[in-house]
Design brief:
single chain; 104 residues; alpha+beta; 6 strands; 25% helix; 41% strand
Length: 104
Amino acid sequence: DSKVWAFIALNDSNECIGLITLNECAAIYAGGSFGEISELYIKPGNRSANIGTLLIDTAVEFGRSKGWSYFEVGAPDLPRWQKTVDFYIRYGFNTVGPRLELSI
């Protein structure tokens, strides 16, 4: 009955180099359940190596198996976190107020 999940990325030495945490949420506007990315973190030395993309791909596959129609993620402050927002937009997320969402 868990509503919180985490997926981790490991390097060849089995060290954690990234993670994504997900929450299951529900709302009338969403037509039921949907996923929320509460955290996506990649260790600095491993950024720009497609680890974040692989973790979101895993989350999307998992979300589809749960019957979720989309994901939301909080949009961080701009311009300080512009690279983070740009990453999500490149993946296909859309800006919706202070959040970004991805239909799956």
